[in-house]
Amino acid sequence: MAPKKRPETRKPFEMVLCAKSKKSRSPRELEPEAKKLCVKGPGCSRRFDSGCLWEKLTSLQVPPPCGSIVRALHHHKLGRTAWPSLQKGLQQSFLHSLASYRIFQKAAPFDRRATSLTWHPTHPSTLAVGSKGGDIILWNLGIKDKPTFIKGIGAGGSITGLKFNPLIPTSFSPPQWREQLGCKTLKATLSEFIPAMTPAKPYSKVSPSSFWFCSLDVSAKSRVVVTGDNVGNVILLNMDGRELWNLRMHKKKVTHAALNPCCDWFLATASVDQTVKIWDLRQVKGKSSFLYSLPHSHPVNAAHFSPDGAQLLTTDQKSEIRVYSASQWDSPPSLIPHPHRHFQHLTPIKASWHPRYNLIVVGRYPDPNFKSCSPHELRTIDVFDGSSGKLMHQLYDSESSGIISLNEFNPMGDTLASVMGYHILIWSQEKAGMCK
């Protein structure tokens, strides 16, 4: 059943520090409330089935943490343990810790749904979230002061992409943020690039009724901004907003643009024309100059390179997550069936990578037409292993049970920010006294 559109009325800013409650239970603790399901076998060797929440709970059992991480590190230093084995042990330890993750802060600062979020690249407690009305909240979780709120233009001002300027250090005093932090506007504020402590400056004077940007990424090394618009154009600009080139690379809207973190001349673009294309920015001459074209069965919401740049994660608008290998672009991808269908009044669901481990995090939108769905299925945050496609863990809070569209771990990988409708949820490992 599609979610009902909420009336978009202004309401006062609300931020909640969550108290420890017995109601904040994990999906496994809620097992009696859900119906167990039968999972069908895989269709091929490279296709993975997430199944549903409660089938074969032992398959979701996270391996026990390493007996001693310190010992494992010591053995690695002595050459007795290979790095992949050590990395696997660290990942298992992190997965084990997810059982204690709870929502410890939440906020509802907008009068329209949240549409984008990003963590500061060097300050892991600083978060920016944008809304459909153009509002932006700058939230430093490490201080008790009220988050900074930047008012948008209202209807037609949707923030579809957010990035901090990595070249300019950020001041964390809220009054200075209000005075010094500006928003570089891309095509009449329909997509935002956030530089710290620089004056606002429009990138383009193109009428917003005809064109608007839908995606955004930035490279600190090359000092460029890349973005895609609603008609299939991809534009490369320098940090001052000067346009380097503007080419039509897709037949329809470019929903996502991402630069490879290890090779920033390597660009991936996703589109509703059901393709993801890989480009070399040094050789772009036109729409046919792509290196690879990766066809999909449905429009694509996102394409994210893994932190090491070796994999590409794509999310379509129905029920499929794909993982491509950078060494074998032409080989069939790993397929993870997962319900996250598109709905007009819902922020598109996008899967993302954990910054330190080969893990994928994505919100679940239960679909009655999904082959292994149940009417009692919960709207969880699912964590998959990026190598095997296996569902490793699910986060759930009974007091925040809406559809969670966006999830992103901070650079340290220990705090998760989620977007659920009008709400911002902050997940972290539960510690004694943390939520008191």
From TrEMBL:
Its main location: nucleus. It comes from the Eukaryota. Belongs to the WD repeat DDB2/WDR76 family. This is DNA damage-binding protein 2. GO terms for molecular function: damaged DNA binding. Pathway: Protein modification; protein ubiquitination. SMART domains: WD40. GO terms for cellular component: chromosome; Cul4A-RING E3 ubiquitin ligase complex; nucleus. Keywords: Acetylation, Chromosome, DNA damage, DNA repair, DNA-binding, Nucleus, Phosphoprotein, Repeat, Ubl conjugation, Ubl conjugation pathway, WD repeat. WD repeats lie at residues 247-289. It is found in: Chromosome; Nucleus. It comes from Cnephaeus nilssonii.
